[in-house]
Every structure is written in structure tokens, then in C-alpha cells.
Design a protein that fits this description.
The structure is a single chain. This protein is α/β, with parallel strands linked by helices and 250 residues long. The chain has helices spanning 16-26, 43-51, 71-84, 106-112, 135-152, 168-174, 183-196, 220-235, and strands spanning 4-9, 31-36, 60-64, 92-94, 118-122, 130-131, 164-166, 201-205, 208-209.
């Protein structure tokens, strides 16, 4: 395996150095791609500086974008990078920059991805594993997941979660161009198309901790998008099976 961990950032200068140190400690052979949307706090400059250090040189990459363009498009850009790089990264793992995802779970992701097309880090598999979230935010997340499962029919306990891993072949079958949503709807969309195209999805329990530094990116527009995006997924022709892919293919 040659894993690439994609971490979108916007004003994450305070949280990023500690997170990267923990990631490289947990998975020493992994590479990390930071996709930064021209953060005013200098996140890109920090990543360039860290990438030049001896221990991380050749394993930490930066994709700097001209403006704030959204979480979904940041991941799409990261997926394109993984699919077009000469290093042939496989698998690709999504991870938040704010410290809410525990890097110590990464070896379990890599182990499960040996036999699955996608692995979902679930906050809700077998019980609640959420720390430092106010009750309204927790209830919103639980309701959103119930709603997304009901509409899409995808039997995953944490459809909106952003700690996920996907194999290169499945990512190529889905094609980043199919992924149009932003915010948490993007996470639902990725899992929806993986299942639609016959992917084997596994869930592993993870502990989710409310962001350790900075401010949440949750907004009213993100919530509204998630409400209607699941219906778009269900009835859009973008869900057609890729040409040449037999039904039930793995």
C-alpha cells in the first residue's frame, strides 16, 4: 500500500503541526496532501516550511487553491491529485485538520482497506463515540444520518462522517467529477456512489472529538444543501453504472 491522507484546510495553522506529527507517527510510510484554500492565517506558508524538514521531506505535499472553494471541491481536488500522481497513491484517506479525527485509528483503516473498497470511520457504530459536542449539534448529526439513510438506502451508520478511506480503483470508477456536493452532503455522496457501483464498504468505530482549535465550519447553507442533495443523488442519472462495469463488480 502507498496511502495518501488528504487534509483540507482553511485557517488551520494552529492545529496542523501537532496533527501532522501524530499522523506520521501513526503511519510512518504514508504521505499527506494538504489542500489549502488560501487561508488568511498563513496555513500554506506553514505547510511549505514543514514540507522542507528532513523527517517529512518527500511525504508532505501542498495543493494551494486561489480562494475558499468549499470542503467538497477540496476533496475532489485531492482525489484528482491522487489519481494523476506518478506515485500511484492507494488508498486515499480523508481526514479533518482540526484534531477531531484520531490519527491512531489510521492503521485500522489500512488493515480494513486490504479487503474492502471503502472504510468508514463511524461515530455511531455500536453506540455513541462523540466527545465535546453540545447536545443540539449531536442531535442534528444523528437526525441528518437517519434522514440520509432513509432517502439513499445506504446502510451505513455514519453517512455524514468525514473520516473515510477509499481504494484507488473504486475512486477511479466513481470519478471525482461525479461528486458535486459541498459540506457534509459530500460525505454522503461519496458513500452513495461507492455502494451504487458495487463497492464493498466496511465500518470501524472511531472516537470523534469536537474541534481542538479554531472555529467550526458548519453553516446554515451547509445544512440546507444536505437536505436536498440526498434527493438529487437518488434520482440523478449520475448514478448510472460506469460503462464496462458489470453489475455487482468489486
Amino acid at each position: 500500500m502507498n496511502p495518501l491522507i488528504v487534509i483540507p484546510t482553511y485557517n488551520e495553522r494552529a492545529s496542523l503541526p501537532g496533527l501532522l506529527a501524530r499522523v506520521f507517527s501513526a503511519v510512518p510510510r504514508a504521505s499527506v496532501l494538504v489542500v489549502d484554500d488560501s487561508s488568511p492565517d498563513g496555513t500554506s506558508r506553514l505547510v511549505r516550511s514543514l514540507a522542507g524538514r528532513g523527517a517529512w521531506k518527500g511525504r508532505l505535499y501542498l495543493l494551494s487553491r486561489p480562494r475558499k472553494m468549499g470542503l467538497g471541491s477540496a476533496y475532489v481536488a485531492g482525489f484528482r491529485y491522487a489519481l494523476t500522481s506518478r506515485r500511484r497513491f492507494d488508498p486515499v484517506i480523508q481526514m479533518d485538520a482540526d484534531g477531531s479525527h484520531d490519527p491512531n485509528a489510521l492503521p485500522r483503516f489500512l488493515h480494513a482497506l486490504r479487503n474492502h473498497d471503502m472504510v468508514v470511520g463511524s461515530r455511531y457504530l455500536g453506540g455513541l463515540r462523540v466527545i465535546d459536542w453540545p447536545l443540539p449539534r449531536l442531535l442534528l448529526s444523528l437526525g441528518a444520518n437517519w434522514y440520509a439513510r432513509l432517502v439513499t438506502g445506504v446502510p451505513v451508520s455514519d453517512l455524514t462522517g468525514g473520516f473515510n478511506g477509499i481504494r484507488r480503483r473504486m475512486l477511479g470508477l466513481i470519478s471525482p467529477e461525479r461528486l458535486l456536493s459541498q459540506g457534509y452532503a459530500f460525505q454522503v455522496e461519496l458513500k452513495y456512489f461507492c455502494r451504487k457501483f458495487g463497492g464493498r464498504i466496511a465500518e470501524i468505530p472511531v472516537v470523534f472529538t469536537g474541534r481542538m482549535e479554531g472555529r467550526s465550519k458548519m453553516s446554515r447553507s451547509v445544512i440546507f444543501e444536505a437536505i436536498w442533495a440526498v434527493w438529487r443523488m437518488r434520482f440523478s442519472r449520475r448514478g448510472s453504472r460506469p460503462a464496462g462495469l458489470p453489475k455487482g463488480a468489486r
